[in-house]
Fold this protein.
Amino acid sequence: MGNYATIISELRKKAGLTQSELGEKLNVTPQAVSKWENGLSEPDVETFKKMSKLFNVSLDYLLNGKEEISLNQDDILTFDKDELIVVNEPTLHKIISGYCVKCKEPVAPGEYEVVSNGLTQEIYCKECNRVRKERQRKIEAENRSKEIKSGIFWGIVSLVISLVLGFVLIKIFGLENDAISWIVYGVGSYGLGAMVCMLIWGTWLFDIFEFFIRSFQMPGVIFTLDIDGLIFLIVVKIGLALLSGLLSLVIGLIGVIICSAIATVGFPFTLIHELKN
Ligand SMILES: [Zn+2]
């Protein structure tokens, strides 16, 4: 006889039954079950049949731990008992919406967040999404402080250049009423204006510039390799680039107008000019 002793013991434990509970189901004493499991005695054929039904396994499995399924005469598949799923064990079927792109864990409905990443959508589990958001916030804060610093820096640089140039032109060359000195006023006040804009609107101007750059390299726009596809590519990529370029120009123009207004009223050169008279 095969290794039925360990098989019976394993099946009983997997089913969550005690020796006496199994004995009750098979109309034998607990001692009888104990003897089978220790290989001291052997169940009769009828008991084997009952156990086969009870544990939902074949007699073959009960006797030697192997399931032989005959698909056809020439093709016999042999399974190891470890590979078999015990039917008595409750199987939990979890409905899965997908897998988190970060930790690869399966996520159930309501347990995830869909994050739109350009043209694709990604599933994040709640925890990974929290980490992602936190990192994004940090990066944005860092970028904003960098932009403010560079805005102040270039504002000061153009202000200093324009102050020095203006001083040279007005004091040394006496060109206070010349068009050149007004251009210098413009440069300086534009720098000043850029600095103010940076402090008030922050990333706004940069965002538009970034969009301009991105529209050239926008990934994932699907187009086919025929005339229609090429036209689509040209319209989408070049069209968007032109549009954002135009937008940048308009904003630049508005900037110049605002700065000119600042230059006539509050710019240091105007004050110097006033003091001279
Ligand atoms: Zn995750």
